[in-house]
């Protein structure tokens, strides 16, 4: 590696001083070359996967955090630069978490002005009659993630319907996907395991969802945000103590190869194959709400029903069933689990740990 007085030279332009060591490639780059590499990878992912068509209306799920804010920043830039012809919108869900979401929404309001993107905010209070603070008062800290997650999912769909968009993009990155793969493995949730690595989901419903940061490392998003001075909000909220998420973050302590192992984890998830004989819960529109749902029994409406009837545990409790899966050697393993809607499932998987 060539060195200039005062540091290394960028390995791409061979001129400027390197100020970044890319976590993905370990290359030493100057800021400009890093920005270019970061943006081009997302541009090529969009093109190679035909994520958008000209004239489409696209909502960006905007939480004010680094991932979704950088997504809004990069997507607006690429849309201008490469003439995608997209109509972009910011869509935020206000869960009603005092001291957290109210502050992060201020960031989204600033982003709305900075990037000149129309903003739609939908709130749990308006949609469901409950804020997350009120739900926690009733249910306590345990299990509140279940409510928050299923309500947010539906709230994003309802906000997207208000905006009349064709697609919804979220800032889920490679680390989030690796974490979700591990989480679904721990839960034995085959249906979600097969969906969580897809770049686009819900193609058969009214609004499909895409993850343009599917292969983007969290560390690079942080670097990109820092060097571009992207206005983001960063604070953990008190309700984010979901135990399984915490478990799946065990691997964060595995040392400095975490980024590498996350990309392998995501790759392994991609390589899971569901056996053709497996009976899967079919996606569909839940009859009471009409919103898309992966199961016949819609958790959002079940949870809301429980809350309104003074039986909040109805919406957060587990259920029963069993999963059967086949390991790489073809031998079948049966395992009981809690999970009502799926019945007996079978899946085969090929671990991609040795693959590039
Ligand atoms: N309240 C919200 N309103 C709109 N979109 C949201 C909201 N919460 C999450 N999302 C979307 O879902 C993605 C993943 O959410 P997650 O809770 O994992 O946040 P995160 O990893 O902290 O991301 P971010 O840094 O964007 O907050 C976000 O990037 C965003 O696109």
UniProtKB/TrEMBL annotation:
User: For the tRNA(Ile)-lysidine/2-thiocytidine synthase N-terminal domain, which residue ranges apply?
Assistant: 58-231
State the UniProt keywords alphabetically. Answer: ATP-binding, Cytoplasm, Nucleotide-binding, RNA-binding, Transferase, tRNA processing, tRNA-binding
Protein's job = Plays a central role in 2-thiolation of mcm(5)S(2)U at tRNA wobble positions of tRNA(Lys), tRNA(Glu) and tRNA(Gln). Directly binds tRNAs and probably acts by catalyzing adenylation of tRNAs, an intermediate required for 2-thiolation. It is unclear whether it acts as a sulfurtransferase that transfers sulfur from thiocarboxylated URM1 onto the uridine of tRNAs at wobble position.
Origin: domain of life: Eukaryota
Keyword Ribosomal protein appears in the UniProt entry: no
What is the organism lineage in this UniProt record?
A: Eukaryota, Viridiplantae, Streptophyta, Embryophyta, Tracheophyta
Molecular function GO terms recorded: ATP binding; transferase activity; tRNA binding
Question: Where in this protein does the record put region Disordered?
Answer: 313-340
Q: Cross-referenced Pfam families, in alphabetical order?
A: ATP_bind_3 (PF01171)
GO biological process annotation, one example: tRNA wobble position uridine thiolation
What name does this protein carry?
Cytoplasmic tRNA 2-thiolation protein
Q: Name the residues that bind ATP.
A: 61-63, 67, 93, 171, 176
Q: Which SUPFAM superfamilies match?
A: Adenine nucleotide alpha hydrolases-like (SSF52402)
Q: Which GO terms describe its cellular component?
A: cytosolic tRNA wobble base thiouridylase complex; mitochondrion
